[in-house]
Amino acid sequence: MVLAIHRTALDRLYGAGAWTRTEIALDAYTTGLHDAGIPWSAIFLDDPRSMDLDLEPAEIGDAIQSIAIVRGEIERTQADALLLIGGPDVVPMPRVPNQLPTLVADLDTEIPTDNLYGCVAGDKATSPSVAIGRIGGAVEDGLDALLDQLDRARAYRAQALAPDGALIVFNEMWGPASAAVAKRIPATPKGFVQTPDEVVSSSGQLQRSILFFNLHGSRNDAGWFGTDSLGNTFRCMGPEVPSGGDLSGVLVFACNCYGCALDGLASDRSIALAMVQAGVRGFVGATGYAFGATGAPGQFAFSEELARMFFDRLDSGHPAGIALCQARQAYAAARVRPDANRAYKTAMQFILLGDPLL
pLDDT tens digits, residue range 101-113? Predict the structure, then answer.
């Protein structure tokens, strides 16, 4: 596994001494990798030559050069997994144009994606062959929040404990598609929360091995919502629900629009980041407006189809990052065509927060 970090960005954003503190946490984390028999290498985006890679350093925020450095290290080591250490302010998140024609609902002009970091020679952007995860969130949450994630990943690798069962939280209108995904989730017993009849009101409801969400999300509201058959919207949960709870070892897949949007958000304005702070093992979600089935019986599409493929591979014993990587490759091969703009966006925008080999 390749670990990518920008030391100068850490010190600039978190304050002098941030890299020194991070290095200590990173040493403990990589000791855990060694103990687990996982080969690893680290690459400094601000000084790749110090790690025997003959490339120019990446300035803070330079996604193009950061990608070149990471790809160079992946090629040098033949790694099959990548961990980006830091939020988008530290390790920039590339953006590609949104290819969709003008739609009333989808106002995104760009698609934030980590895919490009994991593409090696011959890979399409929709189908990176390297599993990618990212540890870190908003600078506003502080350096301790980032270091805690490294420590929890180390601890989880040493002793993989997680709650039992699964919880499926879904919008009434998307019940059939949600049920189709639920059949593939490798955890029992399964509980269901159907909004607007029910809401998630406490972190205790979320203490399951796997959480699957199929709700509405918005770029302008931190909450996740459902609608009834008349189109009335109901708030199902907000960042305050997981905040302060213990979600150690939980794995989350959210089909919601903006389920994993990170731009300008901290844990008090993002359910994804609040769940990360609460200790989830991994969080898979979309960085922008997402797509799904219409709700007709037996239908599932776009994000729900990707979720089904993900859970199938998780059931086969793959870690979350490998499961997402393989699911994305299968989805892109089956669905992405020159005029399949929604499928293209689906393949590009789902990212993993967490260690890809857990």
Answer: 656 678 899 999 9
Domain 162-315 has CATH 3.30.450: no
DSSP letters of 265-277?
A: --GGG-HHHHHHH
Identify the residue whose tokens are 């390749």: 2
Candidates 194, 193, 259, 170; CA nearest to 222 is: 259
Give per-residue pLDDT as tens, 299-325: 778 999 999 999 999 999 999 999 999
DSSP SS3 for 56: coil
Residues 6+ positions from 283 with CB-CB distance below 8 Å: 251, 252, 254, 260, 272, 275, 276, 352, 353, 354
pLDDT tens, 258-300?
Answer: 999 998 899 999 999 999 999 999 999 999 999 998 655 557 7
Helix and strand element counts for the chain (H, E): 9, 15
- pLDDT tens string 126-170: 999 999 999 988 999 999 999 999 999 999 998 877 789 999 999
pTM comes to 0.96
CB-CB contact of 258 with 250 (8 Å): no
What are the sequence ranges of the domains in the chain? 2-157, 162-315
Residues near 97 by beta carbon (within 8 Å), at least 6 away in sequence: 109, 110, 111
Q: Which residue has the tokens 């189908």?
A: 127
Q: Do the Cβ atoms of 73 and 130 come closer than 8 Å?
A: no
Can you identify the CATH homologous superfamily of domain 2-157?
Answer: Gingipain r; domain 1 (3.40.50.10390)
Tokens of 33: 């990798």
Identify the pLDDT of residue 313. 97
| Cis-peptide, bond into residue 356, ω within 30° of zero | no
Q: What CA dihedral angle connects 115, 116, 120 and 126, to 10 degrees?
A: 50
Task: Return d(Cα 48, Cα 19) in angstroms, integer.
Answer: 16
State which H helix or E strand residue 138 sits in.
none
Q: What are the Cα distances from residue 330, in Å, to 128, 186, 334?
A: 11, 19, 6
